[in-house]
Amino acid sequence: MHPMLTIAVKAARRAGSIINQASQNLDLLNVSKKSHSDYVSEVDGAAEDAVIKVLLAAYPDHAILAEESGHRGDEKNSEYQWIIDPLDGTTNFLHGFPKYSVSIAVKHKGVLSHAVVYDPTNNELFTASRGGGAFLNDRRIRVSKRTRLEDCLIGTGIPFRDLTHLDAYIAMLKDIIPRTAGIRRPGSAALDLAYVANGRYDGFWEIGLAPWDMAAGCLLITEAGGLVGDLEGNETQLESGQIIAGNPKIFGQLLQVIAPHLTPALIEVQQSARSQ
After folding, report:
1. Confidence (pTM)
2. Who is most buried in 7, 31, 102, 263, counting CB within 10 A?
């Protein structure tokens, strides 16, 4: 394991320990509301602080982008940037619904290089390094081999922060449901993407995500042999917040089903991302 990935794993497990301990006393947590249907607890902050402490102890000059604390360090002059979601699936966590994760990725000169998604409930550790493959608890993983969308289990996420594109999303959902074997929406995008990498899902799509929701999962998928992009198949998902992922056969089929439902507003978001 690359030394940088080893540090990321250490940080993820440290956060996972905090999350697991707090899960035993959910009724005692302090919770606040960031926006519509978007909550943050003291556990999010404590887990993020633990991750950042581990990372900066090893790499004090690296820049950081974290969900709760935002940007830290000199992004323009640092070759490395860590992208952190300390608790992806906070609403699930607060309800005792055991689908949430810690997501940590690092970019080197703007390119995703290492990734960790950790499920503390099941002690499942997904890791990847660019050019080194993707793993679940030290076992090599690959995307699924299914070739027909009708045989596939597809993951998704329902818009909940910004409902601007809800109608477009519902139209996509209505078109995809009868074409597949099933749709799942557990509520942690980082974990959903890890499931695509591991072949538990054959594909995934969502609208309105943040970079920390996707960064680690994107590298997991590509290193597991899959494809990932925005709703038009371009590699701007981290900038646009719109994502489709899947094995190589299903990725293209999902794009075809979704294409008729791309509104001018969705296309504008993607075009803006490409121009950045």
Report:
1. 0.93
2. 102
